[in-house]
Amino acid sequence: MTDADLRIQLAQANHILFDQGVLDAFGHVSVRSAERADRFLLARNMAPVLVTPADVQEYDLDGITSDPAPSYLERFIHAEIYRARPDVHAVVHSHSASVIPFGLSSTPLQALFHMAGFLVGGVARFEIRDVAGDATDLLVRDAALGAALAATLGDAPFALMRGHGSVAVGASLPLAVYRAVYAEENAALQLRSRHLADVVPLTDGEGRSAAETNAGQVGRAWDMWRRLAARHDGLRAG
Q1: Which of 86, 106, 139, 170 has a CA that sits 20 to 30 A from residue 92's CA?
Q2: Catalytic residue among 35, 74, 185, 212, which?
Q3: Is 74 a catalytic residue?
C-alpha cells in the first residue's frame, strides 16, 4: 500500500469513527507512512467527518509538517507513540463517552465480551498531573507530554487519559479503528451491567485467543463500517 492509498484509507477511518460514535467534532486518527517509518499521516485540524484525502498532512516524529494548514494541537500523541513503538502503525485518540468514566475511577475497564479481548491484561492509565501539575487543559500539547503518554502506554493496545479520553493503537489502521470502536462498546456494556450480580469478565487466555481470532476478521467490520459511513458523503461535499 502506498501513502496515496493510506490517505484514502485515513479519510475513511475518520468517517467510520464518526459514524460509530467514537469521534465527534474532536479527536483524531493517524497512520504511519508506508514509505518512511519516521513519518506519519494525520489530517489537518478539522472535524473528522469532513476529512478528505486532500486534507491529510505528513509529519515527522517531532510533530512537524511542511503543510501550512493548521495542525491538531495534540499531534504529539501520535508522534511520540510512533517513536516509542515501532510495532504501531496507527493511532486513534478519542473522547468516546462510555470510556471516559473508567479514566475517572479506580474501577478497571475489563474485557467483558470476545470482541474486546484485546483489553485483557489491564489497560494503561495516563495521569497528566503526574507530569505537568494540576493546572493544565489536559491536552497533550508538546513532545514531553506525548513521550510521557507513550511511556505509560508501554506495549499495551489501549490507554485511558483521566478527564480526557483514550488512545487505541494497532499494527494496521483497520485494527486500531476496530479497537477504538470495541473499547467504546465494551465500556458501554460494563456500565450497563454494573448493577448485575457476579459479572464474569474474560480470562487472560480467553481474551488473548479472542483477540488473535478477531485480528484476522477486521476487514469484515471495516468493509461494513466504510459502507455505513458513506451516508455522510453529502455533508462532506457541502
Answers
A1: 106
A2: 74
A3: yes
